[in-house]
């Protein structure tokens, strides 16, 4: 799967900005690829991109329509389908982050097949993965891991990729979730892979590379999350990270979706993640802490980061407030 | 899925005894359910069950034909297909542990549908599982875990189930792999579940129960296995074990399939497994060690078990040589 850009961001009738979270992430990290947005009546999301009809997008050179929104009730409204059929008629491909598989919708599947166009369901891996072999491979890899889910692991990986590129270091973001896949143009939704193949899929996603090349592997879940830790464990083993960054959200009241589960402390996380990572890479180290401090004012954020650094002995930053330079400084480049 | 017994064990033209490993496990633990075996010319496996034709099995009251063998090259030979069609014609269901899905073989699928008979592909879960909720649930659960894969976790769970039944304790074996599923008549191949649902599938497999009831959950993989630890982690969290048994094979040269990976020591395993298990059950404890000492003579086995017990402070047995009474004595019944 290689999703071709530039993109048209299809927002449909997204009820609010949150429903377009994925599309927004793509715009933040790949604005150059996003030529416009497509909105239907009733759409309450806005990426601040030029509004375009399907015809205008085709004329502007869009190669792929990106369905980066949540659809209501998990089904594809007719009002969307008409427009997506038009996109195929005009020679554009479609990549979807919906749970619904667009590749199984007959009218889209038939048109795409007839015209030799791709329909990409990025939540649903189609590859045949191998069982992980655990063999050490050249190239360096960094993996952000979390105290919890949804604490900024993708943002961290992308910010570090950008900082490495700015410093002239060879680096590639490797996507493991739907937003990341749109941003990278390729990747594997590892949480949707058959359990036996989690680590194997990651070995394939971030393969052997030049000794001075860094893969920034998108993290998923948390070893401390009762629902998803299996995915996280397999991802760690497959990534064989040389470097990890511990990601955290300040003041989160409990583990995401699990009110009975407190968020672990940073110092509780570090040895557990190190033990997991050192199974497949005995040299694994933490190189920094990234905290989402959006709930704090400047002074409180600074204080929080100072304490996080004292607790862990690592540089601690909010990637949005501070950038990730201090963490990259600490990487074994 | 409820696989009805009694069974006919279909060995086909299995080239050797090892190819019938699954069938043999079923016979060992559920001999009463196994009325006979079916062998084709060239079969070199023998379960020491009465040989039966498909017609004889139907006449004897067999409800399900069990495909508990490895097929060569992953495809279904015509010589097997003819016999399986005959089984459906005679009203028997089929349960298969093959990678090949029998439910997608047109001649079998059509016959089964027409007659309302089940075709069960036990390696391929068909349920829609939920994401794990991590909520504590009543009933007690024991989970065998391993230094490595294939160290006797299923055997341990079944031996403890039998010992508990002998002592009048309510107990149920919960199967998570193909052989176990044939033995239990139900279960989920957790390594074939989509990664996000590993823990959720186990929560469903071993649900809330009476406070004095024990589920013996079949273990899978090892937290120390670079290929499968994600499955193991999800299984531990979903099982919420009150008790764990550490399983090990004496003198194994390296982790199964991974020549570069040494087998961890018992004392290295215990704290790591405890940390994993205590996320969802803070009361999790180890209650014993089970060692496969088949490579050792009696004196060496005794010595090995004594050292294992000294190293861990737990009762250590070879379930085959010693039974599991000492471990059950140590369970918080």
UniProtKB/TrEMBL annotation, chains A, B:
Gene3D superfamilies: NAD(P)-binding Rossmann-like Domain (3.40.50.720), P-loop containing nucleotide triphosphate hydrolases (3.40.50.300). Residues 42-125 form the D-glutamate N-acetyltransferase-like N-terminal domain. It holds the Pfam family DUF1611_N. Residues 131-328 form the D-glutamate N-acetyltransferase-like C-terminal domain. NCBIfam families: DgcN. This is DUF1611 domain-containing protein.
């Amino acid at each position: 799967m290689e999703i071709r850009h530039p993109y048209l961001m299809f927002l449909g009738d997204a009820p609010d900005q949150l429903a377009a979270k994925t599309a927004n992430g793509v715009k933040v990290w790949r604005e150059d690829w996003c030529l416009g947005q497509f909105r239907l009546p009733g759409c309450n999301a806005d990426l601040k991109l030029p509004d375009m009809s399907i015809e205008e997008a085709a004329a502007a050179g869009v190669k792929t329509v990106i369905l980066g929104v949540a659809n209501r009730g998990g089904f594809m409204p007719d009002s969307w389908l008409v427009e997506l059929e038009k996109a195929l008629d005009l020679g554009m491909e479609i990549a979807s982050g919906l749970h619904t598989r667009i590749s199984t919708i007959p009218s889209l599947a038939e048109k795409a097949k007839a015209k030799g166009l791709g329909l990409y369901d990025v939540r649903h891996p189609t590859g045949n993965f191998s069982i992980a072999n655990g063999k050490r491979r050249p190239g360096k890899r960094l993996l952000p891991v979390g105290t919890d889910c949804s604490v900024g692991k993708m943002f961290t990986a992308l910010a570090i990729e950008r900082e490495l590129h700015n410093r002239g270091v060879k680096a590639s973001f490797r996507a493991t979730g739907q937003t990341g896949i749109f941003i990278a143009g390729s990747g594997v939704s590892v949480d949707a892979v058959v359990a036996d193949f989690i680590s194997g899929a990651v070995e394939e996603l971030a393969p052997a590379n030049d000794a001075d090349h860094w893969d920034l592997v998108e993290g998923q879940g948390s070893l401390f999350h009762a629902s998803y830790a299996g995915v996280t464990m397999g991802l760690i083993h497959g990534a064989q990270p040389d470097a990890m960054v511990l990601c955290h959200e300040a003041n989160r009241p409990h583990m995401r979706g699990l009110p009975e589960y407190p968020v672990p402390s940073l110092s509780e996380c570090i040895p557990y993640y190190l033990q997991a990572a050192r199974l497949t890479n005995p040299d694994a180290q933490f190189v920094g802490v990234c905290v989402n401090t959006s709930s704090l004012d400047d002074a409180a954020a600074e204080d929080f980061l100072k304490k996080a650094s004292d607790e862990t002995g690592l540089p601690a930053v909010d990637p949005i407030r501070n950038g990730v330079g201090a963490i990259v400084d600490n990487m074994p480049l």
